[in-house]
Structure formats: structure tokens, C-alpha cells
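Researcher: Batch entry, complex prediction.
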Amino acid sequence: MCAAAYDEMLDTTGGARAHCVRYFSWLRAQPAELLARKRAEADALFHRVGVTFAVYGEEAGTERLIPFDIVPRVIPTEEWQLLAAGLQQRVRALNAFLGDMYHDQDILRAGRIPSELLLCNAQYRPEMQGIDVPGGIYAHIAGIDVVRADGAFYVLEDNLRVPSGVSYMLENRKMMMRLFPELFRHQAIASVEHYPDGLLENLKSVAPQGVVDPVVMLLTPGAHNSAYFEHAFLAQQMGIELVEGQDLFVRDDFLFARTTRGPQRVDVLYRRIDDDFLDPLAFRSDSMLGVPGLLTVYRSGHVTVANAIGTGIADDKSVYPYVPEMIRFYLGEEPLIANVPTWVLRNAADREHVLAHLAELVVKEVHGAGGYGMLIGPAASAAQIEDFRRRIIANPERYIAQPTLALSTSPTFCSQGLAPRHIDLRPFVLSGREITIVPGGLTRVALREGSLVVNSSQGGGTKDTWVLES
Amino acid sequence: MLRIRHETVYRYDEPVLQSVQSLRVTPRREHRQRTLSWQLAAPGRRSEQLDAHGNIAQLLTIDEPHQEIRIVVSGLVDVPDDGPLIVERGPIAPLAYLMATPLTGANAELTALAARCWSGSAATRTELEALAAAVCNAVKYRPGTTTVTDTAASALQRGEGVCQDQAHVFLAACRSSGVPARYVSGYLLSGDDGDIASHAWVDAWLERPGVWLGIDVTHQSTAGARHCRLAVGRDYLDAAPVRGVRRGGGRETLEVRVLVAAENSQQ
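Model: C-alpha cells for the complex:
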């Protein structure tokens, strides 16, 4: 599988691609023990900073380091420009779709997406119906997972609820600059350090109408959450308060925070809590993480919640196949980055095909995330395949299937030295008064040989991502 | 015309530091009912808005320590006797009321219950009335046999429940066979039957002609001039008269008194 895949750094003869010549000749000139020392240094530093990730499904409370690979993923200027344009286009369409979904539902009336798929979807939030959000922006922060397979880029997944991972993008860059400062003198690599400033600007730009100098706070579920490090990190970088539900309260249709200087009105809530837990009076009544009455304030237009409630209807895996149609419908354009061909198993014809080819395909749970609940046909045992067959037949609407993509690879340090490993890319798209993308993103790498699962919860690692400036 | 008084009193063993409650105790603005007067008395601060289902909702917040919350609504509502159809489609697409909720998930028994009453794909009024009878037969009305978190499936298994359970069972059965249906909370002029004045029933979607049909499952009949509609939703949790959270307070006791009386409209 590895041999056939496109490598981002090396051509088929093993020589560096044009945009990587400089880096690769540097890398080859480095003594092996120096690189080994640098790798150990990186591990030690990450431990000290506390960049860890709680892994679900292992022993409760297990926290471990996401392995960091010292070989960067390098993207040439022209390629990035193409990607950025495609991502902007996609996020514009997704926001337009969300606005339509929670207002007039023109796309349903036009028959472009089956009504039942959207309205009878657990991710559709009737509570959002009719709410006007500032600028018509719902997905203020979007993490779009992009892969390259057979030479072309594809969007694998949109993450529009509470996308995470941006702290790794920032920390990885800091680490690379610390370990190998000379590399950043050799060539112009687009900087990513300003992401927190851009995020804060973006959040302020979507404050409720008429608010001057808006107060932004970050709502976290607390220290037990797997992404708590990132919550604390971003709040600190942006210079805003990190709060929990119990620090906030609602009065007279406004949201306030308890502070040492008395109640402070909150205009924009950058929440890192799922919809279900945001307001026990509207969603799960057993939630202690949210703020009772928050939905009422939101409906009154007195607070902006970022990302908006109900964005899950746009990144649901069963809705994903229709994103290209959204781009055509709302923008009148053809998608610049393609979707991965997807079979929707609620459709009988798709189901028949997939059940006959399970050993070749990837099957995903519609409501699964983080690489859980997934079948990778070529890597699965006969028993695993039969198990999925039974599950699909019992609840076809819960699954989609895609071809097993030969994800591109990048040279990665493994126990036996430098070897190709499969990678993906999650750039972070910010939507507010305008759409901006920090050049780069989070490159995830599947560290096991031949593995196609890059999720950190499944043993994936990360790399620094370089976008070259011409 | 209905003269209504509804008093809800929460008492707490220890002081509550903060209460936030979501109230749906004001009659919906609908063609089929006209609110002539309506007063709400409650402690604390209050704001009002239309929720996503078109219900009139108040958010009540109390920041000072308290050991009692008394909410009293009263007024006069004119409900002309012009049939059980609700002409307003509502702000949410009917199809969205096909979605099961944690309280209205269907199982094989619930699906079978519905299947026995249907002949075609879109429900008719006769079939919906037959389903109401089947639900009442399977879940006998018995006061005091439920908790608010009871699901349709558990009510059906128990074989008895209150109007809320019967409504949930009806909703689960309808939705499992592709008929959108929603929960209705409101008041009923019940004559001698005092404990059912605060009532729950359902709206089922009639594909032709595209209107909601009010059905009082408990009484196995359509809902009409004796019913005053407060709120609709996907289940009890969307439409509950009071839904609240508090900090502190210890044990809670709840007292509800509802009076619904017919008043001569000639005056």
C-alpha cells in the first residue's frame, strides 16, 4: 500500500521533489545521532509543556503525548493557494447552507437534498429555527480534513462543531523553530503564530450588533476534557477569560460572568462544549457544564455563540455527500476541491454495492468521530467484516462507505529510521467579517506502517506543516 | 369560554441560592383560541420570547436566596367550537416532528401498536382515533404512576400511566410509522375530573390536507373547545409548563392546583 502512494516529499526515484530539495539535502546532511537527540529533546519539551491528549477507550483518565515527528510536511506556494481557495469556497457554502437550513430551507424545497435526511437528523436543532446570527456565520471556526490520494486533493470530512487541534499546529511550529532555527533562516516559511490574534479578531467581528469593544470568553467543560490543554492555551494566547458553566449566569436576557470585579457582560462565547450540554433548560437537563437560560439569551440576539448551535447538521457524515451540491446551489460554482466518493447506506442501491465489497471499502458510522466505529476493509479480519455486515443490515442509516484511499505519505521517523507514513491535513478556516486561513494547519500522521488512521485517539502523530512563501 | 387559574408552588427544605426556570404557561397565539386576558405572577426577574416551536416562553431568574417559588397564571381564553384542526403549520417543518427523542424512541412493541391501526402510508383521522383507542387500551390511565423521565417504551411495558405517558406512547407509535406528531401541553375543561385540568395530548400531521389534528389520546377523541393549548414540542421536555434548575435547596416539594371553568360568553 505504501509503495503505491504519492509521497509529498520524494518522487518515485527517491529524490526530493522540487519544493523539498533544500530541506531534504539539509536533512541528509544531519548526523543520525543529532536527529535522535533532537527527537528526544522534543519529547521531553512536550511533556514539560503538558501538551497531552486524553485517549478514550483506554484506561480511564489515561493521558499521553501525541507523538511529534521532526520531519515537516512541506506544501509549495501554488498548491496552498489552490487549497485555500477551495477551502474558502467550501466554508462559504456550508455557512450559507446552515443559514438556509435554519430559516427558509430553500435547498429542501428545490429538492437538492432529501428533506428527511436533514429534518429527521439528530444533528438538526429545531431550537435554532429562525435565529438570526451576526453576519449569517454559523461555523466561525472550521477544521476541514483534506487528504491527497492518487495525486488529487479531497475533502475527507468537515469539522464544524468544536474543531480542535489548532494548539498542536502552534506548538509544533514553536518546537521546530526551537530545535532547528537554521531551517527557518534558509527559506521563507509562512508563519502561523498569529492564529490566536486572528481568532480573537474573528470572534469580535461577529459580536451582537451595536456592541462596541465586545467581551469574548472561552467556555470549557473543564480540566477533565481531552482538549482542555488547548482551551487553556488559546484563552491565554488571546488574553481572554477561560470560564466554566458555573462561572456564567443569565439575567434580563443577557449573559454575565462572575468576576472579582462583579458581573461582567459576555458578548461572544467561544464555546468548546457540545450543543447537548450548553443549556440544561433546552438540551440535556442533566448537564452541569452549561448555562441555564443561554439559549434564551442567544435567541434574543444578545450573545454570539461560536460555533453556533446546530452546525452538526452541516458536517454530519450522512450530509457530507451533498456538500458539492451546496456549493453549486448557493454559490453557483463548481467545487474546487472534490469530495471523496461516498455511498450512503440508507439508499438500497448503495447498500447492495457496499455489502458486496466490504473487504475493499472503508465504512464509517455517521455519528462517529475520532476514528472510532470504523471499518477499514483491506485491514480488517473476516470476523470484523461480518460484524459490520450485521450492523449495517440492522441500521443502514447509521453508516456511509468510501473507497479505501491511498493517502499520500511523508517521510517520518520510525524505529527503523526514515520511512513513508500516511498523512492528512486539517487547516483551520476562520469565518467572520471575512474568511481567513492561516497558511498551514495540523498534519496528522499514521505512525503504524501501512495504517490509514491518523486520528490521535488511534495512535496517530503530528508534524509541523510548512507552507512555502515564494 | 374558559376561565383558568393555575398555581404552581415549589418549596425547598433549605435556601436555594439561585433558580432559573423556563415557563410555558401562556396560551399559544393560534387562530383557534383567543386569549382575552392573561396574568402571570412570579418572583424574580422575567423575560419573554417566542421559542422555536412558537410557544410563548418566559425565563425566570431568582438570584437571592429563597425557599419558595410561587407561580400563578390566570385568565380567560375563548376557544370556539370549530373542530380539532390547527391551521397554523408552525415555525418548524412538520417533518422534523418525525424525529424520535430519548423519551419517544420506538421499539418493536410500539411499532407493532401503530402498524395494527394503519392501512395506507399517510394517516387518516379515523386511523389516528383508532390508534388513540389502542394506546389507551395498552396504557391504562392511572394518576400518580409516572415520573417525568419515563419513556414511551417503559410506559407501554408498565401498561399504565398518566396523560403524558399516553401522549408519548402515541407519539412514538406515530413517528415509527412515518406520521409526524407533536406533544401538546395545556388545560382541559374536564367537568368533575379535577386532577386532569392540567393536561397533555398530541397533534398528528394529516398529510392531506396538510394540517395538524389535535387528538386527546386519554379521552380517545379529537381535541376541541374544552382544550386550551399552552405549548407544543417534540416531547414533554420541549413543552413542559415549568422546567428549571437550581443551586442548593435540598429536598423539593411541588404543589400544583389548576382550575378550569366554563364561562358564559354572552356577557
